[in-house]
Structures are given as structure tokens and as C-alpha cells.
Amino acid sequence: MTNSLTLVTGGAKSGKSVFAEQSLQDDARVCYIATGVMTQPDPEMQLRIKTHQKRREAKNWVTEERFKQVGEFVASSQYDAYLLDDATMLNTNLFYDWAIEFASSRHLELDDAIDQMTSDEIAMVSHLIFEAWESIISALQKTSQSMVIVTNETGLGIVPATKQTRILRDIYGQVNQRLAQAADHVYFVVSGLPQQLK
Questions:
Q1: Taking CA 89 as the corner, what is the angle to CA 141 and CA 119, rounded to the nearest 5 degrees?
Q2: Can you tell me the distance from the alpha carbon of 61 to that of 177, in angstroms, rounded to the nearest whole number?
Q3: How far apart are CA 152 and CA 188, in angstroms?
Q4: For 5-52, what is each residue's pLDDT tens digit?
Q5: 185 part of the active site
Q6: pLDDT tens digit sequence for 135-187
Q7: Closest CA to 71 of 128, 17, 23, 22
Q8: CA neighbor of 147 nearest in space, from 96, 92, 80
Q9: Which listed residue (52, 107, 127, 185) is catalytic?
Q10: Distance (Å, rounded) from C-alpha 45 to C-alpha 38?
Q11: DSSP assignment letter at 158
């Protein structure tokens, strides 16, 4: 397997995860990095996780559930390839991990704290998330490992109604642009049909 970074984007239920999984060789030593880490009971999320797990049952892949310090994990590991599914959830979890501490330090409810975030505070949390991705990209380059990253294409709809969703939409879009820039191959999946963009 050649060393490369592949980005697979698309809308919800577009078939992007299935395509990403199928793009990896069956005999490869693959580490599946699951970023949808459950911190509270969520029946819908549990169903999504079980669906993904069922598709991987026949594959001899190692699963690593994490959204923090992914770059450090990759740097200290050695697999033929990683499948990170997905970038959007990693961004979301890192954002709320920071936002919960931010709200607690100001003795505010989470939604109120996010609504009161200044442009400097938005820039700060965005920078922390971007740094996490730079760490992942750097780890791949230094260790000559390959990764397929699945992400959601979130910029095709209307402007979100709330400040919270606008902040996240902007982070998602900026991270996707950086990943596409760093990637050797980029695919956009529409209704199960992958279109190669790069």
C-alpha cells in the first residue's frame, strides 16, 4: 500500500463511509479511528455506531476510539493505513470539550457561554482544532503512513440560524479545505457515487 492521504467528503447518508472502507485493501493492517466517542447515552448515535461496526465485522481491523491526541497516537503507532471516521465529529467533540470548560469557568450554561463568545475566543478554539489537524498531517508525513479521512460536506445549505452552528460550520469548512490541500486524493460522494476531485 502506498503512503498517502485521501479525503472522502459528501453529505449525510451519501455513502462516503462505505466508499472509504471499500477503498482499503482487505489484507492491509488497518486501524479504524472512531471519533464518535459516546460520552452520554444517545440511542441514535448508538445505532449509527452499531451500523458501522457491523460493516467492519469481517475485516481484521483494529479499532481506536478517540478524538483527542490523534496525531500523537498516529506518531506512536505503525499500521498500513488508518481510516478516520469522521473529521466532522472530531471537530465537534474538540469544540464542545473546550466549550464545556469555557462555560464552567464563567459559571454559565453551555449555550449561553457559546452565545457570548468573542471573536478572539472563537479564533482561540478554532486554532486549537486546526493545531490538532496539523499534528495528524505531520505525524503521517513523518512516519510515512497512509490515512483515509471521512468528512461531511456542510457548506451546501443555507446559513445556519444560530451563532453556535455558524461557528461550527465555519470550522468544518476551514478544516475540510486544509485537509483537501494536504490530501493526495479527494473524493466527493453523491448518492453512493464517488467523484474524484483530486
A1: 90
A2: 28
A3: 10
A4: 999 999 989 999 999 999 997 778 999 999 986 555 556 656 655 655
A5: no
A6: 999 999 999 899 999 999 998 888 888 999 999 999 999 999 999 999 999 99
A7: 128
A8: 80
A9: 52
A10: 8
A11: P
